[in-house]
Design a protein that fits this description.
Layout (H helix, E strand, L loop, with lengths): L1 E3 H4 L11 H10 L3 E7 L8 E12 L6 E7 L10 E5 L9 E5 L4 E2 L3 E2 L2 E4 L2 E4 L1 E2 L16 E2 L12 H4 L4 E6 L10 H12 L22 E3 L5 E10 L9 H9 L7 H13 L4 E4 L7 E5 L5 E3 L5 E3 L5 E5 L2 E5 L3 E2 L12 E8 L1 H11 L4 H6 L8 H16 L2 E10 L7 E4 L2 H6 L5 H11 L2 E4 L20 E5 L10 H12 L19 H15 L3 E2 L5 E2 L3 H4 L24 E2 L4 H13 L5 E8 L21 H10 L5 E8 L1 E3 L8 E2 L2 H14 L7 E5 L5 E11 L2 E9 L1 H6 L7 E6 L20 E10 L4 H12 L3 E10 L8 E10 L8 H19 L2 E2 L3
Parallel strand pairs: 14-17, 28-31
Antiparallel strand pairs: 1-13, 2-13, 3-4, 3-6, 4-5, 6-11, 6-12, 7-8, 9-10, 15-23, 15-24, 16-23, 17-20, 18-19, 20-21, 21-22, 25-27, 26-27, 29-30, 31-32, 32-38, 33-34, 35-36, 36-37, 37-38, 39-41, 39-42, 40-41
Helix pairs in contact: 2-4, 5-6, 6-9, 11-12, 13-17, 19-20
């Protein structure tokens, strides 16, 4: 928000000699972020004067319209002769007064003005627009001063256009909607500097009458709890916005449109009450305020035809919707050049409804920004009186005696505050009377002593203190003050954040990482050491993801939690598998030119609990009871931690050292083994089996088991999934449930033998359908305690072995802890291992 200090001075008596730096610091101390504080007197140097256009010659033959102007700048140019200036703007005519910067002047951005020949004519100076002077963003035309302006050619133009002022650009946080107005900022400065404040929101205004200014029916008093309106008839349609008003709007970044519309914008900036002006002659029948019907159409003032939903609020006449309530008016009822009867509207709308409507339609108007942050419901009649008075003063007309005021506003809810709570929470001694004074300074009504609502002070949701409590009723312009913590924040803010000592709390002795935390870190470190890159995906998924992954109709992963207010309507679900978002990241990186990718993520998935209802309603004024906490926790979805990897391209790059190797299903399986090894699970508890599980290829999918329980899957993704997601062929993935892993046993210290090993290779011929993992387990079971290690190093198939058969070659390592093994002992252990494989799978030694 941009606001001029001269406007603020109308409501708070700022010292004339107050330095700009002190003004900025005062706002910062109150928690208002100051983007910039610009002294406009320093932004333009040189001669900036008022000029009067004498003659205009249209130059032709160029790509755009060009005008050669003779402008009277008085004696400012030293000669008294008209200044020759070439200009491309077309919103002025002979006789208009304009703003001219003469050669030697410097505009914002260090743009120096000189005299030069252009378009075949001599141009000495520039006729300025608001944007060129740094007064706003309007560059559609140059500044034309009002015809009744007393300024004469050659006069300094700075005070005429407001360049003798200081402009503050402020960033208003979402919880401080009251500060989005001159009224709110002036009140804050009065608090900070200890000055008196003249509240324009308390100006006298006539109350509503029995006869309405215009027939209006409000059908939804939740979405619109107050609606006020008043009519002004016989307005001069040619009346122009006064220069001082247009100047303030320009400084605020709002383009001047017409007198009635400018007045609504001016009142919005001044009081914080958004308004709308209807052309009464263009309204057909009574007005109805209601929710839109799904599919209704409305063309808003920006010329966009919008399709409405049932959550939008609209204002209708007999022809249908004529305004998107609280966001933007419609074309059919807007004030036009011939408008003589103006119906002013000032209402109070539900901020949640407005925020959702603005986001749904991507229409963040100045009005919508204020509504979603909270507007004072006591302002509508004051704003109407202010707008009507300005319109009559500058546009003529007669105000109707009838005033419509449909009021369903609920009173502000009192908040019970232990008087010592600010001191206990902040660590600064705030005397009881100081707390009362500061809250009353904000505008609260404070009753000290027993709670007048009859509530037990011990149930206010904070630890017991002195027992003395305050019953605080916030003012109507502070809808953000709903809980004791909010009031504590106001006490600290107004008393001064600088009084809060910067003391680091003493950290309690910790117990270190939990077992689950250590396991997650070990898994992430193990994958990173093997070349995988960790990513963090958004935990959201699209409804069509289940179909894209080919999940069966009865797959529990299809049941997902739907967010009530998702960040994106395209992804309203919480993920039930890590693979969806992770494959999306893989696709995005492929699209950016990366070809060899190995990514992983450790994160939560969300599984809804069947048969649960809605969570209980709980406030923040007290700690939930055990029963309330249990009821709320029962609704929260299960959130197990998973780890997943995805691979595409080459896992071993090619180079001068040799050919590379593409990532395959075995690499995904090996990633699963690495995860289980990093989780400190012994190899004898881990098993890998062939499986069929979406979204993996049924012939290249492995199930990862621990103690006989499936904890994850790995392998190559199904071709249809890869095609549907537009991923490279043979993309591989692994996903494993870390929370399903049993706690790792205490690992005994390994015994290191100083005796040499015995190495024996065995090649076993058996049916090709027998998994190599099961063969390896059989070797381990048969070899006994002397077996130190077993590794598969060759897989071979040929016609000589027979159809459907293959050879698996393993390297067996035998070692005794207390002696050197004899050849006979090693061979006996090998034969015992082979015997078990033969018994289980009918294997034979190759070459035997």
């Amino acid at each position: 928000m941009r606001v001029s200090v001269s406007w603020l001075r109308e409501y708070v008596d700022l010292p004339a000699d107050l330095p700009t730096e002190d003004l900025e610091q005062s706002l910062v101390d109150l928690g208002i972020e100051v983007e910039s504080m610009v002294d406009l007197r320093r932004t333009v140097t040189g001669q900036l004067v008022v000029g009067e256009v004498r003659e205009i010659e249209e130059l032709t033959g160029f790509k755009k319209p060009i005008r050669y102007c003779l402008v009277d700048v008085g004696a400012a140019n030293g000669t008294g002769e008209p200044q020759q200036i070439v200009c491309g703007a077309r919103n002025f005519a002979p006789g208009d007064k304009v703003v001219v910067i003469l050669p030697g002047g410097v505009l914002p951005g260090n743009f120096t003005i000189g005299a030069r020949k252009t378009y075949g004519r001599m141009s000495a100076g520039m006729i300025c627009s608001a944007k060129e002077l740094g007064l706003g963003d309007d560059h559609s035309g140059i500044i034309v001063l009002p015809a009744d302006s007393p300024a004469k050619p050659g006069d300094d133009a700075r005070p005429v256009v407001g360049l003798d002022d200081v402009v503050a650009e402020l960033e208003i946080t979402p919880d401080r909607g009251y500060a989005s107005s001159v009224r709110g900022i002036a009140r804050e400065l009065a608090h900070a500097l200890g000055l008196s404040f003249r509240d324009p929101g308390l100006a006298p205004a006539p109350a509503g009458t029995d006869a309405p200014a215009y027939p209006v029916e409000v059908r939804d008093t939740v979405g619109c709890d107050r609606y006020a309106a008043r009519m002004v008839r016989g307005v001069d349609p040619t009346a122009r916005t006064p220069g001082w008003m247009a100047q303030r709007l320009t400084v605020a970044g709002i383009r001047s449109i017409s007198l009635p519309v400018d007045i609504t914008n001016y009142v919005m900036l001044e009081l914080g009450q958004p308004m709308h002006a209807f052309d009464a002659a263009r309204i057909t029948g009574p007005l109805v305020v209601r929710r839109a019907e799904a599919g209704e159409k409305l063309t808003t003032l920006d010329g966009v035809a919008r399709t409405l939903t049932a959550e939008d609020m609209v204002i209708c006449d007999d022809t249908g919707p004529i305004s998107l309530a609280a966001v933007m008016g419609g074309e059919t009822s807007e004030v036009v050049a011939g408008t003589t009867d103006v119906l002013f509207e000032a209402a109070h709308w539900d901020p949640v409804m407005v925020g959702r409507t603005a986001r749904r339609h991507k229409l963040f108007s100045e009005a919508a920004k204020r509504w979603e942050r909270g507007v004072d419901p006591a302002l509508p009649l004051v704003a109407l009186e202010r707008a009507v008075g300005l319109l009559i003063e500058h546009g003529g007309g007669v105000a109707g005696d009838e005033i419509l005021d449909i009021d369903h506003v609920r009173p502000m809810r009192p908040v019970v505050l232990p008087v010592d709570l600010p001191s206990r929470r902040i660590g600064v001694d705030y005397p009881a009377q100081r707390v009362v004074d500061l809250l009353e300074q904000v505008g609260c009504t404070v009753v000290r002593g027993a709670d007048r609502l009859g509530e037990d002070p011990g149930e206010v949701g904070v630890a017991a203190g002195t027992g003395d409590v305050l019953t605080v009723t916030p003012p109507t312009w502070r809808p953000d003050l709903t809980d004791p913590a909010d009031l504590v924040e106001e006490v600290v803010r107004l008393d001064g954040y600088d009084r809060v000592p910067s003391v680091l709390p003493t950290a309690p002795a910790g117990r270190g990482l939990t077992a689950a935390q250590r396991r997650r870190r070990a898994v992430a470190r193990a994958l990173a050491e093997r070349g995988y890159v960790e990513v963090l995906a958004h935990p959201f998924a699209a409804p069509e993801l289940a179909d894209q992954l080919g999940l069966p109709a009865d797959d529990p992963r299809r049941s997902a939690v739907r967010l009530a207010n998702p960040l994106s309507e395209e992804e309203p679900l919480l993920r039930t598998t890590l693979l969806g978002p992770l494959l999306g990241i893989l696709k995005r990186n492929l699209g950016r030119g990366h070809r060899d990718l190995a990514l992983f993520e450790v994160g939560a998935v969300f599984h809804p609990r069947p048969g649960v209802g809605s969570p209980p309603a709980m406030g923040v004024d007290r700690r939930p009871t055990d029963a309330e906490f249990a009821a709320a926790d029962a609704v929260v979805p299960d959130q197990p931690r998973h780890v997943a990897v995805v691979l595409a391209g080459d896992i071993e790059p090619a180079g001068w050292w040799g050919a590379g190797r593409a990532a395959g299903w075995a690499d995904a399986v090996e990633a699963g083994r690495d995860v289980l090894a990093a989780a400190d699970l012994p190899a004898d508890r881990i098993e890998v089996r062939a499986a069929e599980y979406a979204p993996w290829h049924p012939g290249r999918c492995a199930a990862l088991l621990v103690d006989g329980v499936v904890v994850g899957h790995a392998g190559e993704l199904h071709p249809s999934v890869v095609a549907g997601l537009e991923l490279p062929r043979r993309t591989c993935a692994m996903e494993l449930n870390l929370d399903a892993l049993a706690a790792a046993p205490v690992a005994p210290a390994p015994t290191v033998s100083g005796f040499p090993p015995a190495l024996i290779d065995v090649a076993l011929v058996l049916d090709a359908s027998v998994p190599a993992e099961q063969v390896q387990q059989a070797l381990v079971d048969g070899a006994g305690d002397l077996l130190e290690g077993v590794r598969l190093f060759d897989v071979y198939a040929s016609e000589q072995l027979g159809a459907g058969r293959r050879s698996l070659a393993y390297k067996l390592t035998f070692r005794a802890p207390d002696r050197t093994l004899t050849v006979e002992e090693a061979v006996a252990a090998r034969d015992a291992a082979v015997a078990v494989v033969t018994e289980r799978f009918g294997a034979t030694l190759r070459g035997a």
